[in-house]
Amino acid sequence: MEQTFIMIKPDGVQRGLVGEIISRFEKKGFTLKGLKLITVDQPFAEKHYADLSAKPFFRGLVEYIVSGPVCAMVWEGKNVVTTGRKIIGATNPAESAPGTIRGDFAIDIGRNVIHGSDAVESARKEIALWFPEGIAEWQSSLHSWIYE
């Protein structure tokens, strides 16, 4: 099974969307393997977004992520990275379809509620960064009702 990193950003936490977002991943059939509410410091935020450090929006993105608590999660399931990105919607909420998290809950790209790994390799790196202590190793009793 594949794993992905999902982070509900400060605006999503402040707006009380954590339960709604978790519910969407659970209803799809994915398994929650790690969860923590954390306030991120600047060096950690810079490390998380290191691949974007040359972009003009990098400084604003770091300031935004450290502005309040985030909800960091690891989800597991078949094709969870690709499917998770579809559940989340386009980075720009104006391009996100209704029914996606960003399509339903975001307006501005700078307040787009959620981050999701964009590839299996980036998911591995993000999970290792955010969950150095490891994740819960368990299998839901619903597994056989979701997967063939």
From TrEMBL:
SUPFAM superfamilies: Nucleoside diphosphate kinase, NDK
Binding site for ATP: K9, F57, R85, T91, R102, N112
Record Gene3D superfamilies: Nucleoside diphosphate kinase-like domain
Pfam families to which the protein is assigned, alphabetical: NDK
Keywords recorded for this protein, A-Z: ATP-binding, Kinase, Nucleotide-binding, Transferase
Names of required cofactors: Mg(2+)
Reactions this protein catalyses: a ribonucleoside 5'-diphosphate + ATP = a ribonucleoside 5'-triphosphate + ADP; a 2'-deoxyribonucleoside 5'-diphosphate + ATP = a 2'-deoxyribonucleoside 5'-triphosphate + ADP
GO biological process, any: CTP biosynthetic process
A molecular-function term among this protein's GO annotations: ATP binding
Enzyme nomenclature, EC number: 2.7.4.6
Active site annotation, chain numbering: H115
NCBIfam families with a match to the protein in the record: PRK00668.1
Main function: Major role in the synthesis of nucleoside triphosphates other than ATP. The ATP gamma phosphate is transferred to the NDP beta phosphate via a ping-pong mechanism, using a phosphorylated active-site intermediate.
Protein family: Belongs to the NDK family.
HAMAP family: NDP_kinase (MF_00451)
Protein name, entry field: Nucleoside diphosphate kinase
Species of the source: Daucus carota subsp. sativus
